[in-house]
Inverse folding.
């Protein structure tokens, strides 16, 4: 029996999903949000039993928000769909929220090898997290690429960003709302072979994302 929805925002992640979906623990009901993929992301997801939601508006935030609206369980998890995370590592995060120890549980990336997380992407990420800890006393060290919380509580925050600023806007909002945050180290693997980096693979990609982050910092 499933107890939590798992939203996977995906843009051209077909090769990653082939390996990732069979490894998702049975407690999760998977929703793949296909955001204008040109590869077989939707077909692979459907074939492997995931619910597929199509979101026409491009952007990470647009995909995650569409997944939140499509979710039906009280508990909802979000994770990148590019193979860089192990879905089994969501279970301790889910337990924290389901058992009332936290209002949101987040993952803190631990690269499994040198070069998995390029210096420019890691630096940009560390800068934003340090800023939020300094400005808002945020209780986290990463921008929550893996997270679990209650669906209604999240939607009640009324997050507006539909691009890569979404997780930063989320962390600002939960910190301001006084949510209890628990953080767990999670292994960060290279994205799946056969998929293309959209962010950290280039300085331009990182710069564009850093701009998205900056826009939501109020
Ligand atoms: N649906 C959708 N998903 C996106 C979009 N951009 C990124 N994603 C997905 O969001 C997740 C995180 O994006 P990534 O591209 O992995 O970001 P990253 O991990 O910082 O950088 P790379 O893995 O190097 O690209 C992945 O599953 C992507 O497929 C988008 O515009 N629409
Ligand atoms: Mg990635």
């Amino acid at each position: 029996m499933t107890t939590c929805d798992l939203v996977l925002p995906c843009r051209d992640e077909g090769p990653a999903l082939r390996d990732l979906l069979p490894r998702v623990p049975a407690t999760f009901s998977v929703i793949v949000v296909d955001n204008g993929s040109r590869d077989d992301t939707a077909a692979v997801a459907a074939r492997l039993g995931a619910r597929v939601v199509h979101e026409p508006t491009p952007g990470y935030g647009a995909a995650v928000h569409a997944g939140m609206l499509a979710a039906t369980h009280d508990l909802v998890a979000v994770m990148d769909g590019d193979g860089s995370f192990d879905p089994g590592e969501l279970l301790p995060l889910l337990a924290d929220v389901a058992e009332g120890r936290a209002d949101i549980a987040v993952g803190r990336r631990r690269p499994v090898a040198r070069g998995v997380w390029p210096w420019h992407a890691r630096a940009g990420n560390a800068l934003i997290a340090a800023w939020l800890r300094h400005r808002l006393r945020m209780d986290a060290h990463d921008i929550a690429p893996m997270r679990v919380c209650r669906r209604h509580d999240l939607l009640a925050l009324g997050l507006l960003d539909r691009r890569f600023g979404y997780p930063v806007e989320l962390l600002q909002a939960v910190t301001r709302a006084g949510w209890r945050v628990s953080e767990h180290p999670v292994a960060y693997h290279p994205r799946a072979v056969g998929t293309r980096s959209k962010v950290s693979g280039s300085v331009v990609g990182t710069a564009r994302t850093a701009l998205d982050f900056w826009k939501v910092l109020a």
The mean pLDDT is 93. Helices lie at 14-20, 41-47, 60-70, 91-98, 119-136, 151-156, 166-176, 203-216. The pocket of guanosine-5'-triphosphate (ligand 1) is lined by residues 9-11, 13, 33, 35, 58-60, 63, 80-82, 84, 191, 197-201 (CB under 6 Å).
